[in-house]
Amino acid sequence: MMRAGKLVLVLGMVILAAGCQRLSGGGNQQPAPLPATPTTPVGAGTLAPLDPNAPPVGTTSMDPASGATDLTSNPVSAPANAQQVGRTDLLGGWKVASAGDNCMAFMTLTSWSGGYRANTRGCTAPVLAGISAWDLSGNQVVLKDGSGVTVAQLYSSAPGQFSGQTSTGAPISLRR
């Protein structure tokens, strides 16, 4: 009987040692390191100074001959049915339609020097792709590019719907 007790004790210690070894990683087996991520080399040279009047990167410049409208000095007049709008009415995602382009716009209350932050997704028109801010001027919604230039002015025509004009003269609408 004494021999069976010793055998159970030794067997228990072997199982215990094997369990501890498994919990501690079982030796020096480390996972293989991940391969390095390829990167493009950084070029050397000097950068030209920033031009505050340059259009945002990825957009084309506004050529006065192209029929662009100066919305700052020549604002779009409010329609008779324009409704009052509050800042929280504009928060969130919107479907944008303008000149055959259909994409999304997202508006937040994060402060920006020209109002509040906005961004677009899936817009192919440079004017729409360059939207990076929005603000309210009375009951008018003003969309601006990265340099603070007004790119569209809209009014609420019904709850969850805004319509107006872009700086290129194209009609624009926002809908939920």
TrEMBL record:
Keyword Membrane: yes
UniProt protein name: Protease inhibitor Inh/omp19 family protein
GO terms of molecular function: peptidase inhibitor activity
Subcellular location(s) per record: Cell outer membrane
Family according to the record: Belongs to the rhizobiaceae omp19 lipoprotein family.
Membrane topology: Lipid-anchor
Pfam entry (one): Inh
Keywords: Cell outer membrane, Lipoprotein, Membrane, Palmitate, Protease inhibitor, Signal
Leader sequence segment: 1-17
Organism: Roseibium salinum
Domain Alkaline proteinase inhibitor/ Outer membrane lipoprotein Omp19: 87-176
Residues spanning the membrane: none
Residues covered by region (Disordered): 26-82
UniProt feature, compositional bias: Low complexity: 39-49
InterPro entries in the record: Inh/Omp19 (IPR021140), OM_lipoprot_Omp19_bac (IPR010571), Protease_inh_B-barrel_dom (IPR016085)
Sequence ranges of Polar residues compositional bias: 58-82
